[in-house]
Design a protein that fits this description.
Blueprint (H helix, E strand, L loop, with lengths): L1 E5 L3 E6 L10 H12 L5 E6 L3 E3 L4 H5 L4 H17 L3 E6 L2 E3 L1 H8 L2 E4 L4 E3 L13 H9 L1 H10 L2 E3 H7 L4 E2 L3 H8 L4 H12 L4 H25 L4
Parallel strand pairs: 2-3, 3-5, 4-6, 5-7, 6-8, 7-10
Antiparallel strand pairs: 1-2, 8-9
Helix pairs in contact: 1-3, 3-4, 4-5, 5-6, 9-10
Length: about 230
């Protein structure tokens, strides 16, 4: 279900269950967490196989759950693993992203969509809601107003509206190109920038860490910095 392709500076993680629009079962979540946890590349591209990014949780598995709270916790752990990974994780949303698929994308550092992308949180229609960290990350990313309307309506938005909401940052023909270009940047810079922008501490602590990170990068790259003046 989870296929990884190691390209050196870029790891491509593909959700591969196209016959079910890459819907995730508990074992698939475990495999995805392991793939992200084991990533050595500075950039990871998370994408789906076939005509969908990810339909979210497999509803047959959800209906059979004996411990639904643990399943929610499992999804939260996977999303936290994505968010806290030292790698920059890019969600390449091509086709449908629903429910848990949206929530996994929200945990990624960068979300880009193709013109075919559609996103929705349809759980409200069947008596569920996004519990893989969606109620925390969605308002943080798109604002409370958009988050409430998007989740309470259960409607599906296309790529253009997702861009207007801030749910994705770009619409591209191929998300792979975005991830590959990002992997060409200085790897230590990528890691430190992610750490700083993801830091949830107070401003004083964040500013101190920002200055320390800048100094570390400067000392490591001073020769390249000097030579770049001529370019």
């Amino acid at each position: 279900m989870i296929r990884t392709t190691d390209e050196g500076d870029l790891l491509v993680v593909t959700l591969e269950r196209p016959e079910r629009r890459n819907a995730l079962r508990p074992g698939d979540l475990d495999a995805l967490e392991t793939a992200i946890d084991d990533a050595d590349a500075p950039v990871v591209l998370l994408r789906g196989s076939g005509p969908a990014f990810c339909a979210g949780a497999d509803l047959d598995s959800v209906a059979a759950l004996s411990d639904p709270e643990e399943f929610a916790r499992q999804g939260q752990r996977v999303a936290d693993t994505i968010e806290n990974s030292p790698a920059v994780v890019v969600a390449g949303i091509d086709g449908a992203a629903r429910g848990g698929g949206v929530e996994l994308a929200l945990a990624c550092d960068v979300r880009v969509a193709t013109p075919r992308a559609t996103l929705g949180e349809p759980g409200v229609r069947i008596g569920l809601f996004g519990a893989w960290g969606g109620t925390v990350r969605l308002p943080r990313i798109v604002g409370e107003g958009h988050a409430l309307e998007f989740s309470l309506s259960g409607r599906v938005v296309d790529a253009d509206e997702a861009l207007q909401m801030g749910l994705v940052s770009r619409i591209v023909d191929d998300p792979y190109d975005v991830a590959a270009a990002m992997a060409e940047n200085d790897h230590q810079s990528l890691r430190i920038i992610k750490e700083r922008l993801r830091d949830r501490r107070g401003d004083d602590e964040r500013l101190r860490a920002e200055a320390e990170g800048f100094a570390a990068l400067h000392d490591a790259n001073v020769d390249d910095i000097a030579s770049s003046r001529e370019e």
